[in-house]
Every structure is written in structure tokens, then in C-alpha cells.
Amino acid sequence: MITNTEDQFSSAKEPSLLAVVLTALEATGRLTSPPPVSDLPAHFNRDNFRHLHIDERPGGWVANVEFRDIPAGKPDCIGTPERAPFADPRDAFLAGAALVCKIATGSPELPFFVQDGQLICVAYGG
Description:
The protein has helices at 17-27, 89-105, and strands spanning 49-57, 60-67, 77-79, 113-115, 118-120. Helix 1 crosses helix 2. The protein has a 3-stranded antiparallel sheet with strand order 1-2-3, with helices on one face. A two-stranded antiparallel sheet has the order 4-5. By secondary structure, the chain is an alpha+beta fold.
């Protein structure tokens, strides 16, 4: 279970983008295995997630994932390419969510899908 995200909820009523993705990953059982081995810097891991945010840039939108506990002089985020922004913030969010999934589970597969403008997460529990 991921419990150390500073922005678990951005307000009492609205979950953060990162919390939405992590909650869906938990609900679908995709965070039960050990963290994946990655070719990213060691501090870019699921225990160090801080924020997922969508930013408007000239020509569109990008997604950025921020991390905590960064070694001195090392980058604190990874994101979608600024030179190829998405036309709409929803597409940037989905790309950012896929990046979170890849770091957290080793697969970019999303734990939800979009239907009629809503995120749908299907999970079976016991």
C-alpha cells in the first residue's frame, strides 16, 4: 500500500491525480508485488511519488510526475515530452497515469478506462 504521498488528497472533497491512479492500482491488486526493477534513477520509484500534475504549455498539455527524497543535484520529476504536448488535458493525464503505472508496476497498462468523460475502474474484492 502506498501511504507516503504528501498530496493524498488535494482537498477534503477532491482526490489528487496521483491518488486517483494509486487508488485504482490498489483496487485492482496491481500494487501487491514488489516494486519493479527499472532503468530509471533509483529515486524514481513508487515509494517516492509526490505529485502527478498536468501543465499547460504552448501548443498543448504535458504530464509531470514529481518525486521526494531526491539526492542532491538529481532531477525531481519525469514527464511527457514538452516538445510534443497533448492537445487536451485528458490525454495528458492518461499519459501521466500510464507513466505512474509503469513506475509503480512495471507496466503502463491503466487500471481504469474512460467512458463518457468518466474514469471507470473495475475491481473484484473478497
